[in-house]
Each structure stands twice: as structure tokens, then as C-alpha cells.
Amino acid sequence: MTRPEPRVEVHPDADTLATTVAGALLERLVEAQAAGREPNLGLTGGTIAEAIHREVARLGPASGVDWSRVVIWWGDERFVEAGSPERNAAQARAAFIDPLGIPRHRVHEVASSGECPTAEEAADIYSAAIREHGAGEFEVLMFGLGPDGHLASLFPGHAGLRATDRIAIAVHDSPKPPPERVSLTYEAFDRSRAVWFLVSGEGKADAVARTLGADATDGDLATRRETTPAVGVHGVQETVWFLDRAAASRL
Ligand SMILES: O=C1O[C@H](COP(=O)(O)O)[C@@H](O)[C@H](O)[C@H]1O
After folding, report:
1. Please, are residues 73 and 130 in contact by the beta-carbon 8 Å criterion?
2. Number of Cβ atoms within 10 Å of the Cβ of 224
3. Whose CA is nearest to atom 7 of ligand 1?
4. What is the stated purpose of this protein (predicted)?
5. Residue 69 is part of a domain; what is its CATH number?
6. Which among 52, 142, 180, 189 has the fewest CB atoms less than 10 Å away?
């Protein structure tokens, strides 16, 4: 399937980036609801995501979004205890999900290590829930980018890069702590209407340049993903790289 080329937006700093992405997200949710869709929103964890979530909470009440009709998911989650501050879900809940009053039954967290014996089982339960809700047709699926080029919890050289028959997988030995995680796979990413990368800071500049450079290169995608996992991840309608100036400094 041919997809539109990625668009790159560069903003002066992390604060401007966060406000811009929050605004774009709210607009997109309003439009989706006006078109009769109940938008599925795929969240990411990480530093810039937290700043964006706080902006969503600030701008959300006046945005016109019907928060009772937004469905929340995560692109990846750390397989730790439910109360752990390391959970991506804990961060998003505190920042905007609870303040905006999104109903609990619309929020689909990956099961925690206290609820499930293994990350494999948590991944299977999560896959089943996604399948029941349109198999991952996200209105917007957001990703951070690691300095090593990882997205969600798909890390360079890891087996998860080669999972072709599953929506969500268990990840062991993540090079970034905590080591046990659950991640969506390319199978799920490929169904999203919009894919947005949210990247801030000089420490990510090499990874951004490498990923966008490799995206424009011909050759076997699976091989390129072994070293640069975020390469070739495109939404059906759009792919946007929201960068601050520092993250864009090596483009
Ligand atoms: O571990 C993770 O890290 C990345 C990026 O985090 P950052 O702090 O470098 O911005 C995030 O995309 C992912 O969801 C998360 O599990």
C-alpha cells in the first residue's frame, strides 16, 4: 500500500513542541468525532509525551472533544507492578486521563506484573482487546524515539522486530530499564490513520537523522529495521515528525 511521505515539523523548543502537538491532537479528535468516529488514541511514554499530556489536560476542557467517547491505548508498556511510577499508563493517567475524566472503561491498559504471571500473557490479553476494537485502527498513534532509534519497545537487534503474526509481544532484556515490557508490533502500527513521532532534545538528533535518512533509502526494510527500528513506520493517512530544533539539528 502506498502511503504519504512523512512530513517534518520543526518547533523552536520542547515547550512549543508540546503545545503544538497537544493542539493538533485535540483538533484531530474533534474532527474524528464530528465524522462519527469514536477515536482510538495510541499513547507513548517518555519525557516529551509527559509535557504533551499536561498540555492536553490544560487545553482539553475547552477543545470541544467529547472525552466520554475517546478510547485510550498504549504503544508499549513496562511490565511492572500496577502502582509503579515506571508505568507509561500511570504517567498519562495522572497528567490528563484522570483530570479530563475519561471513563475507566475507555482506557485499555496493558496488564501489570501483579495481574498477570508473564509478559507473554499480558501481550496476548492486550492483543485480544485491540482485536475487539478494530484491530488497531488508531486515529493517532504516537511514538517517542530513543537515542538508539527504538520506538515503542522495539529495540535494535531484538526479536520483536521480526514478529509478523502478532499485534502485541512480550519484550525481555530491554536495554532501557525496566527490562520486561509489552510492545505493539509493526502489524499494529501499519493500521493507524496517523502516526506521529514526538522527539525533543539534542540527544535524539542522531537517531532522527538516521531514521529519516534510512526511510528515504531503498533496500530491504527488515534489514534496515534491525539497526533503526523506527524506519518505515507510516500512517495510512499521514506520518508527522514533530521535532524541536535540537532534535532536528542533524537533518
Ligand atoms: O521507554 C520508553 O521510552 C521511550 C522514549 O522516552 P524518552 O524519555 O526518551 O522520551 C518511549 O517512547 C516509550 O514509550 C517508553 O516505554
Report:
1. yes
2. 18
3. 46
4. Hydrolysis of 6-phosphogluconolactone to 6-phosphogluconate.
5. 3.40.50.1360
6. 180
What is the pTM assigned to this prediction? Answer: 0.96
Ligand 1 nearest-atom number relative to CA 44: 14
Full domain range(s) for residue 120: 7-244
pLDDT tens across the length of the chain (251 residues): 678 899 999 999 999 999 999 999 999 999 999 999 999 999 999 999 999 999 999 999 999 999 999 999 999 999 999 989 999 999 999 999 999 999 999 999 999 999 999 999 999 999 999 998 876 689 999 999 999 999 999 999 999 999 988 999 999 999 999 999 999 999 999 899 999 999 999 999 999 999 999 888 888 999 999 999 999 999 999 999 999 999 999 99
Q: Is 178 in the pocket of ligand 1 (CB under 6 A)?
A: no
State how many domains the chain has: 1
CB-based contact 76:183 (threshold 8 Å): yes
229 in ligand 1 pocket by Cβ < 6 Å? no
Q: CA 230 to CA 132: how far, in whole Å?
A: 26
